[in-house]
Specification:
There is one protein chain. The chain is of the alpha/beta class and about 220 residues long. It has a single domain, classed as TIM Barrel (Alpha-Beta Barrel). Helices cover about 20% and strands about 25% of the residues. It is globular. It starts with 14 loop residues before the first strand and ends in a 6-residue tail after the last helix.
Amino acid sequence: MNDSQAPAVPVAAERLRISEIFLSLQGEADSVGWPTVFVRLSGCPLRCRYCDTSYAFQGGDWLEIDAVLEAVAAQGVWRVCVTGGEPLAQKACRPLLTRLCDAGYRVSLETSGSLDVNGVDPRVVKVVDIKTPGSGEAARNRYCNLEHLSPQDQIKFVLCNRADYEWACEQLRRHEMHEICDVLFSPAAGELAPRELAEWILADRLPVRFQIQLHKSLWGDEAGR
């Protein structure tokens, strides 16, 4: 048997370690309030002090991309959010995002901003979290990611106190983030009063969007949703 007659070697299907797949209302960003399927990937290289999904750091089930798409389709809605953990820490995240887009879903990606977002399917709405000093992970911010954002994307700051707020204002000005896409300022739950942050934004006439986490108002900390 020559090479042309040799049987093809099957290509291993791409798999991801999945913490959970569930239906909820989107609690943040520009699609807040929409019924959305959340695909939470396991694993994260960061350890933010206020993290509310630490259960996703470890464990989870290995699923092939086809199985993930089947689970998403079973929920019967057309918006999908791929989150974590840190989803981009898994190599198969990018192919999953593309497959979801190809299937006709409106897809968003929630990422810590510590890993390269270049090469993410341009149809995906990227929500990039800039880590503040209060998170304990500000040194991990990858500011070159800003070059790969478009007007459909969003930049998010989770603020723990006034020092975080002033630091975020400086990053906003230095990098002209509001010229790239929408910038969201959100109070860390239990650490900064939402009204206090709202008043700071108004006093400084900041070109940012205030947000609180709708899902926590509805369900508290249940499953981090």
